[in-house]
Amino acid sequence: MSEFVDKDGNVFHKGKEIKKLKGTLKPTKVKPPKKRIKRRTQDQILVDIHKKKKAALKKAVKKQKQFLNHNIKKG
């Protein structure tokens, strides 16, 4: 913010108080900062990749078991 007015009416321009303008402007409404998304760590990324690979492997094993048990679905 280049210009800020606090609730007492003090005016600040680029961080310096301007006493001549005290009480002439409305107080500035300050918006809360946006929440930032936390970045995943390298360990978390590796854990997620491992889980995906494990799930794919489980699916492939299940498919092979169905094939060996002659439970083939024609589609």
Descriptive report:
1% of the residues are buried. This protein is α+β, with helices and mostly antiparallel strands and 75 residues long. It is built from one helix and three strands, in the order βββα. The protein is rod-shaped. It folds into two domains: 29 residues, no CATH class; 36 residues. It has a three-stranded antiparallel β-sheet with strand order 1-2-3, with no helix packed on it. The longest helix is centred in the C-terminal third of the chain and has 27 residues.
List the helices and strands and how they pair.
Blueprint: E1 3-5, E2 11-13, E3 16-18, H1 42-68
Antiparallel strand pairs: 1-2, 2-3
Key descriptive features of the protein:
rod-shaped; three-stranded antiparallel β-sheet; alpha+beta; 1 helix; 2 domains; 75 residues
